[in-house]
Amino acid sequence: MAEKNLYEILGVSKTATDAEIKSAYRKSALKYHPDKHKGDKDSEQKFKEINVAYEVLSDKQKRQQYDTFGSAGPRNGFGGGSGGAQSGGFDFNGMNFDFGNGSGGFADIFESFFGGGASSGRSKRSKRSGPIRGNDIEANVKISFDDAVFGCEKELEITKSDVCQHCDGRGAEPGSSIVTCKACNGTGEIRSIRNTILGQMATSNICDECNGEGKHPEKLCSVCHGTTRVRVKERVKVKIPAGVDNGSTLKLAGKGEGGIKNGLSGDLYILLVVEQSKKFIRDGLDIHGETEIHLIQAVLGDEISVPTIHGEKTIKIPAGTSDSKVFKISGEGVKRSNGQAGDHYVKIRIKIPEKLSKKERELYIALAAEAGLDTKKSGGLFW
Ligand SMILES: [Zn+2]
Ligand SMILES: [Zn+2]
Predict the structure, then answer these.
(1) Which ligand has the minimum distance to the alpha carbon of residue 186?
(2) Which of 126, 147, 201, 287 is the most buried (most CB within 10 A)?
(3) How much distance in Å is there from the Cα of 155 to the middle of ligand 2?
């Protein structure tokens, strides 16, 4: 496909001023004028391109439109462009001039390129021929902390565009046949001739009646009205494996929107949103928790029970354990089916008794004396 950049055709930069564009146009038009090159097809083509380029770039609005649509987005607005990735390209296909007498304006040429599309949104559709893959869909699924850790099965409902089952994507009511388009005689194109300043110009447009197919259903499908597509709701079961985390994405191949003309279906991507736990904090495969122990357990050491995601586990607290000390319980974090496993970390919180029995008080006083603490000075023993 002949994709050309209008700025390059005139040999100016994208930031060229109106005066620069005008001057470049004059020079080029003079150089390639058909009177100077009778019968030279290349020059003729070049001359046409120069004129179209000037027609667009010399008009503030059209230039802006070209800058916008030429470098991004709706390529179909440009003379049946087929969605090529080139940016700023301009399609000169489907355009034939007969040089002769003629009147009219370049506006006609412009219209024929843009099909009124760039301004009115009515674009010249490109001819769809081969199968087109369906769109991918994205869905968020909220799961609990435990479901993320241990895995679960969820069912969700998605709404998507799919192939019409009633007509099997043909667009025709079952039993009715596909007939040759009368509007274009099966060619898929409508040719029109108009008079322009350059002479008679023939343009070929995609046939609106058959969308360039050259044929259409005799009777449209009563469900999709010939569009071949319908919106459907579908319940999808998702198996969520153990060990997924907040932000994990699951891909369900082929569960996206149905393809066009036997094209493959798109995929369904599920983004997991995991709720937080009141007891634990998760860090990848590791789990962090806290456990309170008595002051005396911290001083003397003990064996304590610690809650983990896999239930209570026993650990040894050595004598002289200070507050905030962290102990690791290996392999008791999140476990994945591939054998990967994190660890459980427990932070010790030492609980200071707030009320003492008479006996306890006496024992603490005796301990203070043993430790050489003059607790009366600090006001601690006024009871
Ligand atoms: Zn047709
Ligand atoms: Zn249908």
Answers:
(1) 1
(2) 287
(3) 28
Distance 262 CA to ligand 2 centre (A): 14
Q: Are strands 344-351 and 286-294 parallel, antiparallel or unpaired?
A: parallel
| pLDDT of amino acid 380 | 53
77 alpha carbon – ligand 1 mean position (Å): 20
Pick the CATH number of 281-352 from 3.40.50.300, 2.60.260.20, 2.60.40.420, 3.30.450.20: 2.60.260.20
Instruction: Round to whole Å and give the CA distance between 83 and 81.
Output: 6
Backbone dihedral angles phi then psi of residue 145, each to the nearest 5 degrees: -55, -45
260: CA distance to ligand 2 center in Å?
A: 12
Span from the CA of 163 to the centroid of ligand 2 (angstroms)? 8
pLDDT in tens, 196-240: 777 777 888 889 888 888 988 889 999 999 888 999 999 999 999
Distance of CA 229 from the midpoint of ligand 1 (Å): 20
Check whether 167 has a pLDDT greater than 70. Answer: yes
pLDDT digits (tens, 9 = 90+) for 113-137: 433 333 333 334 445 568 899 999 9
Q: Which residues neighbour ligand 1 (ion) by CB within 5 Å?
A: 181, 183-184, 207, 209-210
**How confident is residue 94, by pLDDT bands cut at 50, 70 and 90?**
very low
Please report the pLDDT score of residue 109 as a whole number.
41
Question: For position 24, what pLDDT does the model report?
Answer: 87
Determine the distance separating the centroid of ligand 1 and the alpha carbon of 169, expressed in angstroms. 19
Strands laid side by side in the 281-283 sheet = 281-283, 286-294, 344-351, 326-329
Q: Is the Cβ–Cβ distance between 95 and 47 less than 8 Å?
A: no
Distance 266 CA to ligand 2 centre (A): 20
Domain spans in the chain, listed from the N-terminal domain onward: 6-120, 281-352
- Give the CATH fold of the 6-120 domain: Helix Hairpins (1.10.287)
Instruction: Using alpha carbons, list the distances in angstroms from residue 94 to 91, 191, 294, 316, 378.
Output: 8, 9, 88, 84, 99
Residue 106 token pair: 């370049």
CA of 173 to the centre of ligand 2 (A): 7
